[in-house]
Amino acid sequence: HSIITRQQCESILRDIYNSHPCAAIPNQVQEIIPYLYLSGLSGKESRNFDYVVDISNYGVGVRNIDFTKTLVICINDSMNANIYKYFNKATNYIHDKLQQNKSVIVHCAAGRSRSASIVIAYLIRYYNMSLQDAYVFVHNKRSCIDPNDNFLIQLARFENRCRKSH
């Protein structure tokens, strides 16, 4: 057995992070549909968006958040997190703002899993897309999306529920 130092571990983790497609575009913001944008945490600072859906749960208590124009959803990007329970609230919020021709940016920490899942849920619900079509649509705009398997299962449940209600 070999033991690695903390510095070696941090270096390995940094290499893994930097090799991910989103690491190359952390400040980039992609427009998914008119007025609806997707990014990581730092992307929301790149321009002045009318409204924000913040799913980063990173430093919520210390960051300067304007709660009058921000929907904050505190959830971890994990295999046991329940994002399903936020799909209605988040998609309603986004839809309400887009109907007013207001810009909305949806972000998590990296713009890969949590925020992508919310945007995909929006397309499933309001554009009547299948999960597969919505995923491909968002992936074509932001190639680094990678919702965790748990979120994909919950998106499939959401798709099924939306289809039954149409």
Protein architecture, described:
The protein has one domain (27-165): Alpha-Beta Complex (Protein-Tyrosine Phosphatase, Chain A), CATH 3.90.190.10. Helix content is 43%, strand content 11%. It contains 5 helices and 5 strands, in the order H-E-E-E-E-H-E-H-H-H. Helix 3 (114-126) packs parallel to helix 5 (149-165).
Number of domains: 1
CATH class: Alpha Beta
Provide the CATH architecture.
Alpha-Beta Complex
Largest sheet: 5 strands, mixed
Structural class: alpha/beta
* Helix content, binned percent: 40-55%
Molecular shape: globular
Strand order of the biggest β-sheet: 1-2-5-3-4
Order of helices and strands: HEEEEHEHHH
EC number: 3.1.3.48
Domain Tyrosine specific protein phosphatases: 85-142
GO cellular component, one term: cytoplasm
Organism: Leptotrombidium deliense
Short description:
One of its GO terms (biological process) is negative regulation of MAPK cascade. It comes from Leptotrombidium deliense. This protein has helices at 6-19, 84-99, 114-126, 131-141, 149-165; strands spanning 30-33, 36-39, 51-54, 70-72, 104-107.
Keywords:
166 residues; alpha/beta; Protein-Tyrosine Phosphatase, Chain A; 5-stranded mixed sheet; 5 helices; 5 strands; 43% helix; globular
List the topology elements.
Layout lengths: L5 H14 L10 E4 L2 E4 L11 E4 L15 E3 L11 H16 L4 E4 L6 H13 L4 H11 L7 H17 L1
Parallel strand pairs: 2-5, 3-4, 3-5
Antiparallel strand pairs: 1-2
Helix pairs in contact: 2-3, 3-4, 3-5
Protein name: protein-tyrosine-phosphatase
Enzyme class: hydrolase
Organism: Leptotrombidium deliense
